[in-house]
Amino acid sequence: MVPTPIGNILDITYRSINILKKVDFIISENKKYTSILLKKFFIIKKMFSYHLVNEKLKTKKYIKMLKDGKNLALVSNAGTPLINDPGYLLVKQAYSNNIRVVPLPGACAAISALISSGLKTNRFCYEGFLPKKKKKLKKKIYSLNNEKRTTILYESPKRLINTIKLIKKIMGPKKKISISKELTKKWEKIKTGTTQKFLKKIKKNNYWKKGEILIIINGIKNKKKKISSKILQTLSILKKEMSLSKAIKITAKICRFNKNILYNKIIKKKNDKVS
Protein backbone atom coordinates (compact mmCIF):
# COMPACT_ATOMS: atom_id res chain seq x y z
CA MET A 1 0.00 0.00 0.00
CA VAL A 2 1.73 3.14 -1.27
CA PRO A 3 0.63 6.63 -0.13
CA THR A 4 0.77 9.35 -2.78
CA PRO A 5 0.89 13.17 -2.35
CA ILE A 6 -2.34 14.94 -1.32
CA GLY A 7 -1.30 18.12 -3.15
CA ASN A 8 2.40 18.86 -3.23
CA ILE A 9 3.98 16.24 -5.48
CA LEU A 10 7.26 16.42 -3.52
CA ASP A 11 5.57 14.82 -0.49
CA ILE A 12 6.08 11.34 -1.92
CA THR A 13 8.79 9.35 -0.09
CA TYR A 14 11.94 7.83 -1.61
CA ARG A 15 10.71 4.42 -0.48
CA SER A 16 7.37 4.90 -2.27
CA ILE A 17 9.15 5.80 -5.53
CA ASN A 18 11.47 2.82 -5.12
CA ILE A 19 8.57 0.41 -4.51
CA LEU A 20 6.59 1.73 -7.50
CA LYS A 21 9.64 1.10 -9.67
CA LYS A 22 10.18 -2.43 -8.34
CA VAL A 23 6.69 -3.95 -8.29
CA ASP A 24 5.32 -5.93 -11.21
CA PHE A 25 2.09 -3.95 -11.49
CA ILE A 26 0.37 -0.93 -9.96
CA ILE A 27 -3.28 -1.06 -8.91
CA SER A 28 -4.72 2.44 -9.15
CA GLU A 29 -7.98 4.09 -8.07
CA ASN A 30 -7.62 6.48 -11.01
CA LYS A 31 -5.07 5.64 -13.71
CA LYS A 32 -5.17 9.18 -15.11
CA TYR A 33 -4.06 10.71 -11.78
CA THR A 34 -1.48 8.01 -11.15
CA SER A 35 0.07 8.34 -14.63
CA ILE A 36 0.90 12.02 -13.89
CA LEU A 37 2.76 10.94 -10.76
CA LEU A 38 4.59 8.10 -12.54
CA LYS A 39 5.63 10.41 -15.36
CA LYS A 40 7.06 12.94 -12.87
CA PHE A 41 9.38 10.30 -11.39
CA PHE A 42 10.15 8.44 -14.64
CA ILE A 43 8.32 5.28 -13.63
CA ILE A 44 7.11 3.04 -16.45
CA LYS A 45 4.76 0.40 -15.14
CA LYS A 46 1.57 -1.32 -16.27
CA MET A 47 -1.50 -0.22 -14.29
CA PHE A 48 -4.79 -1.89 -13.42
CA SER A 49 -7.90 -0.11 -12.18
CA TYR A 50 -9.33 -0.57 -8.69
CA HIS A 51 -12.18 1.66 -7.55
CA LEU A 52 -15.42 1.42 -5.55
CA VAL A 53 -17.43 0.22 -8.55
CA ASN A 54 -15.20 -2.72 -9.53
CA GLU A 55 -13.63 -3.44 -6.10
CA LYS A 56 -15.43 -6.74 -5.44
CA LEU A 57 -14.91 -8.06 -8.96
CA LYS A 58 -11.24 -7.06 -9.22
CA THR A 59 -10.20 -8.29 -5.77
CA LYS A 60 -10.40 -11.95 -6.88
CA LYS A 61 -8.26 -11.20 -9.93
CA TYR A 62 -5.55 -9.41 -7.93
CA ILE A 63 -5.47 -12.08 -5.21
CA LYS A 64 -4.84 -14.68 -7.94
CA MET A 65 -2.00 -12.54 -9.31
CA LEU A 66 -0.48 -12.26 -5.83
CA LYS A 67 -0.78 -16.02 -5.30
CA ASP A 68 1.00 -16.51 -8.61
CA GLY A 69 3.97 -14.61 -7.17
CA LYS A 70 3.38 -11.13 -8.58
CA ASN A 71 4.13 -8.03 -6.48
CA LEU A 72 1.41 -5.37 -6.62
CA ALA A 73 1.38 -1.77 -5.37
CA LEU A 74 -1.95 -0.24 -4.37
CA VAL A 75 -2.36 3.55 -4.74
CA SER A 76 -5.36 5.86 -4.38
CA ASN A 77 -6.03 9.22 -6.05
CA ALA A 78 -4.19 10.99 -3.25
CA GLY A 79 -3.01 10.19 0.25
CA THR A 80 -2.91 6.87 2.06
CA PRO A 81 -4.84 3.96 0.47
CA LEU A 82 -7.94 2.63 2.30
CA ILE A 83 -8.60 5.94 4.12
CA ASN A 84 -11.93 6.76 2.42
CA ASP A 85 -10.60 4.88 -0.59
CA PRO A 86 -10.90 1.30 -1.91
CA GLY A 87 -8.54 -1.42 -0.69
CA TYR A 88 -10.11 -2.90 2.44
CA LEU A 89 -11.40 -6.02 0.62
CA LEU A 90 -8.05 -6.61 -1.03
CA VAL A 91 -6.15 -6.40 2.26
CA LYS A 92 -8.71 -8.63 4.01
CA GLN A 93 -8.50 -11.26 1.27
CA ALA A 94 -4.69 -11.05 1.22
CA TYR A 95 -4.53 -12.01 4.90
CA SER A 96 -7.05 -14.82 4.32
CA ASN A 97 -4.70 -16.21 1.67
CA ASN A 98 -1.51 -15.77 3.75
CA ILE A 99 -0.23 -13.03 1.45
CA ARG A 100 2.10 -10.45 2.97
CA VAL A 101 0.71 -6.91 3.24
CA VAL A 102 3.23 -4.06 3.44
CA PRO A 103 1.98 -0.60 4.54
CA LEU A 104 4.16 2.36 3.59
CA PRO A 105 3.98 5.58 5.64
CA GLY A 106 3.19 8.81 3.85
CA ALA A 107 0.78 11.64 3.16
CA CYS A 108 -2.63 11.60 4.87
CA ALA A 109 -4.91 14.67 4.83
CA ALA A 110 -6.75 13.63 8.00
CA ILE A 111 -3.56 13.44 10.09
CA SER A 112 -2.12 16.62 8.55
CA ALA A 113 -5.31 18.51 9.44
CA LEU A 114 -5.30 17.11 12.98
CA ILE A 115 -1.71 18.02 13.85
CA SER A 116 -2.12 21.56 12.48
CA SER A 117 -5.46 22.23 14.21
CA GLY A 118 -4.15 23.39 17.56
CA LEU A 119 -6.63 20.98 19.20
CA LYS A 120 -5.74 17.94 21.31
CA THR A 121 -4.06 15.13 19.36
CA ASN A 122 -3.48 12.47 22.04
CA ARG A 123 -6.97 10.96 21.53
CA PHE A 124 -9.00 11.35 18.34
CA CYS A 125 -11.63 9.64 16.19
CA TYR A 126 -11.96 9.63 12.44
CA GLU A 127 -15.48 9.90 10.98
CA GLY A 128 -14.66 10.42 7.30
CA PHE A 129 -17.21 12.17 5.07
CA LEU A 130 -20.36 13.51 6.69
CA PRO A 131 -23.76 12.32 5.37
CA LYS A 132 -25.26 14.40 2.54
CA LYS A 133 -28.90 14.14 3.64
CA LYS A 134 -30.04 16.67 6.26
CA LYS A 135 -31.64 14.18 8.66
CA LYS A 136 -28.63 11.86 8.65
CA LEU A 137 -26.24 14.81 8.98
CA LYS A 138 -28.16 16.15 11.97
CA LYS A 139 -28.16 12.70 13.58
CA LYS A 140 -24.41 12.36 13.04
CA ILE A 141 -23.61 15.78 14.58
CA TYR A 142 -25.82 14.94 17.58
CA SER A 143 -23.95 11.65 18.02
CA LEU A 144 -20.65 13.57 18.20
CA ASN A 145 -21.95 16.13 20.72
CA ASN A 146 -20.66 14.19 23.76
CA GLU A 147 -17.47 12.94 22.10
CA LYS A 148 -14.48 13.46 24.41
CA ARG A 149 -11.93 12.82 21.67
CA THR A 150 -10.98 15.26 18.91
CA THR A 151 -13.06 14.43 15.81
CA ILE A 152 -11.78 14.44 12.20
CA LEU A 153 -14.31 15.02 9.40
CA TYR A 154 -14.26 15.52 5.64
CA GLU A 155 -16.79 17.90 4.12
CA SER A 156 -17.69 19.35 0.74
CA PRO A 157 -17.05 23.11 0.40
CA LYS A 158 -20.61 23.46 -0.93
CA ARG A 159 -22.03 22.18 2.35
CA LEU A 160 -19.45 23.77 4.68
CA ILE A 161 -21.52 26.76 5.85
CA ASN A 162 -24.63 24.66 6.56
CA THR A 163 -22.55 22.08 8.43
CA ILE A 164 -20.91 24.71 10.65
CA LYS A 165 -24.34 26.23 11.31
CA LEU A 166 -25.53 22.82 12.46
CA ILE A 167 -22.43 22.26 14.63
CA LYS A 168 -23.04 25.70 16.18
CA LYS A 169 -26.71 24.93 16.81
CA ILE A 170 -26.05 21.51 18.39
CA MET A 171 -22.65 22.02 20.05
CA GLY A 172 -22.86 25.73 20.80
CA PRO A 173 -21.41 29.02 19.43
CA LYS A 174 -18.25 28.64 21.53
CA LYS A 175 -17.40 25.15 20.27
CA LYS A 176 -13.79 25.13 19.06
CA ILE A 177 -13.18 23.83 15.57
CA SER A 178 -10.44 23.93 12.96
CA ILE A 179 -10.93 24.02 9.20
CA SER A 180 -8.23 23.01 6.75
CA LYS A 181 -8.48 23.74 3.05
CA GLU A 182 -6.28 22.45 0.20
CA LEU A 183 -3.56 21.03 2.47
CA THR A 184 0.02 21.02 1.10
CA LYS A 185 -0.98 23.13 -1.92
CA LYS A 186 0.20 26.72 -2.42
CA TRP A 187 -3.28 28.07 -1.49
CA GLU A 188 -3.42 26.00 1.73
CA LYS A 189 -5.40 27.61 4.55
CA ILE A 190 -5.80 26.47 8.18
CA LYS A 191 -8.04 28.34 10.61
CA THR A 192 -8.94 27.54 14.23
CA GLY A 193 -11.64 29.24 16.29
CA THR A 194 -15.22 29.01 17.53
CA THR A 195 -18.17 28.08 15.31
CA GLN A 196 -19.53 31.60 15.74
CA LYS A 197 -16.32 33.27 14.54
CA PHE A 198 -16.02 30.91 11.58
CA LEU A 199 -19.49 31.66 10.28
CA LYS A 200 -18.73 35.37 10.28
CA LYS A 201 -15.46 34.78 8.41
CA ILE A 202 -16.61 32.42 5.68
CA LYS A 203 -20.22 33.46 4.97
CA LYS A 204 -19.22 36.16 2.49
CA ASN A 205 -15.83 34.72 1.53
CA ASN A 206 -15.88 32.76 -1.75
CA TYR A 207 -12.42 31.35 -0.95
CA TRP A 208 -14.00 28.67 1.27
CA LYS A 209 -16.49 27.57 -1.38
CA LYS A 210 -13.96 25.50 -3.36
CA GLY A 211 -11.32 22.87 -2.67
CA GLU A 212 -10.86 19.96 -0.28
CA ILE A 213 -12.09 20.66 3.25
CA LEU A 214 -11.45 18.99 6.60
CA ILE A 215 -13.18 19.92 9.85
CA ILE A 216 -11.61 19.14 13.22
CA ILE A 217 -13.91 19.38 16.26
CA ASN A 218 -12.63 19.77 19.80
CA GLY A 219 -13.77 17.06 22.24
CA ILE A 220 -15.73 17.89 25.38
CA LYS A 221 -13.90 18.25 28.68
CA ASN A 222 -14.30 15.67 31.41
CA LYS A 223 -16.71 17.07 33.95
CA LYS A 224 -15.66 16.66 37.55
CA LYS A 225 -18.21 14.74 39.54
CA LYS A 226 -19.55 16.77 42.45
CA ILE A 227 -20.14 15.15 45.81
CA SER A 228 -23.72 15.96 46.73
CA SER A 229 -25.02 16.76 50.22
CA LYS A 230 -26.91 13.44 50.17
CA ILE A 231 -23.62 11.52 49.74
CA LEU A 232 -21.92 13.47 52.54
CA GLN A 233 -24.91 12.96 54.84
CA THR A 234 -24.90 9.20 54.20
CA LEU A 235 -21.16 9.04 54.85
CA SER A 236 -21.52 11.05 58.06
CA ILE A 237 -24.06 8.58 59.46
CA LEU A 238 -22.10 5.46 58.45
CA LYS A 239 -18.67 6.56 59.73
CA LYS A 240 -20.10 6.77 63.25
CA GLU A 241 -20.76 3.04 63.12
CA MET A 242 -17.64 1.79 61.26
CA SER A 243 -14.21 2.69 59.93
CA LEU A 244 -13.88 5.56 57.46
CA SER A 245 -12.70 3.35 54.58
CA LYS A 246 -15.63 0.95 55.04
CA ALA A 247 -18.09 3.86 55.35
CA ILE A 248 -16.78 5.33 52.08
CA LYS A 249 -17.12 1.96 50.34
CA ILE A 250 -20.75 1.46 51.47
CA THR A 251 -21.69 5.09 50.76
CA ALA A 252 -20.34 4.74 47.22
CA LYS A 253 -22.50 1.64 46.70
CA ILE A 254 -25.66 3.18 48.15
CA CYS A 255 -25.31 6.46 46.19
CA ARG A 256 -23.83 4.83 43.06
CA PHE A 257 -20.81 7.10 43.22
CA ASN A 258 -17.17 6.41 42.38
CA LYS A 259 -15.54 5.30 45.63
CA ASN A 260 -12.06 6.49 44.55
CA ILE A 261 -13.29 10.05 43.91
CA LEU A 262 -15.08 10.04 47.26
CA TYR A 263 -12.10 8.56 49.10
CA ASN A 264 -9.60 11.04 47.61
CA LYS A 265 -11.88 13.99 48.39
CA ILE A 266 -12.44 12.95 52.05
CA ILE A 267 -8.76 12.11 52.67
CA LYS A 268 -7.66 15.40 51.09
CA LYS A 269 -10.12 17.31 53.29
CA LYS A 270 -8.83 15.45 56.33
CA ASN A 271 -5.18 16.20 55.48
CA ASP A 272 -5.96 19.88 54.87
CA LYS A 273 -7.42 20.14 58.40
CA VAL A 274 -4.33 18.50 59.95
CA SER A 275 -1.92 20.81 58.08
Task: Provide a brief overview of the structure.
42% of the residues lie in helices and 15% in strands. The protein has helices at residues 14-22, 31-40, 55-67, 88-96, 109-115, 134-143, 160-171, 195-202, 229-238, 244-255, 259-274, and strands at residues 25-28, 47-49, 72-75, 124-129, 150-155, 176-181, 189-194, 213-217.
Describe it for me?
Belongs to the methyltransferase superfamily. RsmI family. GO terms for molecular function: rRNA (cytosine-2'-O-)-methyltransferase activity. It catalyses: cytidine(1402) in 16S rRNA + S-adenosyl-L-methionine = 2'-O-methylcytidine(1402) in 16S rRNA + S-adenosyl-L-homocysteine + H(+). This protein is α/β, with parallel strands linked by helices. The chain folds into 3 domains: about 10-95, Tetrapyrrole methylase, N-terminal domain (Cobalt-precorrin-4 Transmethylase, domain 1); about 110-215, Tetrapyrrole methylase, C-terminal domain (Methyltransferase, Cobalt-precorrin-4 Transmethylase, Domain 2, 2-Layer Sandwich); about 230-275. Helices cover about 40% and strands about 15% of the residues. It contains 11 helices and 8 strands. It has helices spanning about 15-20, 30-40, 55-65, 90-95, 110-115, 135-145, 160-170, 195-200, 230-240, 245-255, 260-275; strands at about 25-30, 45-50, 70-75, 125-130, 150-155, 175-180, 190-195, 215. The strands form 2 sheets. Strands 4-5-8-6-7 form a 5-stranded mixed beta sheet. Helix 2 links the parallel strand 1 (about 25-30) and strand 2. Helix 9 packs across helix 10 (about 245-255). The longest helix is centred in the C-terminal third of the chain and has 16 residues, at about 260-275.
